[in-house]
């Protein structure tokens, strides 16, 4: 008999154990694979949660309420800002006949020219062709579809010219107005826009005070809003002043130097120009100081400079004029677009 037949119980138990062990191995391998997959999915989800948690705004109820509050405050500030510009929010004037616009342009030009001629004792020099940047329409009328926006821009430019005339420049070099789309027969697309810029370029010559006055006047308007997009200021004299720019006065009866000989020292020579607290300079070799010259010098130096005939040296610094170029945008604030509320279904069905 075989061992299995003689030991049936042991053989059966061993077989059952082997089958059970094989089953456990197979189940363990499968379970290990499922565990690895579950672990990988858990790790991915944990990383996503960690990223969201470390983000700027974690999506919980407290942060949601804080976000709504911030958005509401921002919307309120925007509304208040828009409201502050309401006084500048003027609609575009209706289009008129081209001949009527030409008459308006002529009147505006005459008023501006009169302002430049009356403000200063010496009238401001104007260009030969001076029509506020609309020189093109002195020989032909504009398109009727552009007269409305041109009228709006002309009103703003007229105000600019009045302010510039008050500033008192010595010369208007040029006024250039880039063309608007309406002048080319195209409509202006206001979709998604809250304002429109109407540019104007102005070049003039004046002193520092006239430039400062004109720029300061740009924010004084109650009807138009101006923005300086670019500015360039350059001295009329590009070279620094020299001694030749000084002008010395001549006393009555004083002989002029002949043969190009240098004139007498305007400050009195050695010891003739002494600041308070300084010792007078020693006389030059071979010469003697005049009696009382040293004593009189401090008193003369301490005395204030007299006006009129007492001026010795004219001002040579800071009195030169400057050439100024300004590109200014006239801002037209557009009407806010209002959302339309859809009609109820019942009304829509009845219509």
TrEMBL record:
Residue segments, region Disordered: 245-289
Residue spans of biased composition, Basic and acidic residues class: 247-257
Compositionally biased residues, Low complexity: 258-267, 280-289
Entry keywords, A to Z: Membrane, Transmembrane, Transmembrane helix
Organism: Luteolibacter soli
Name by which UniProt lists this protein: Amuc_1100 family pilus-like protein
Transmembrane segments: 9-29
Entries under InterPro entries matching the protein: Amuc_1100-like
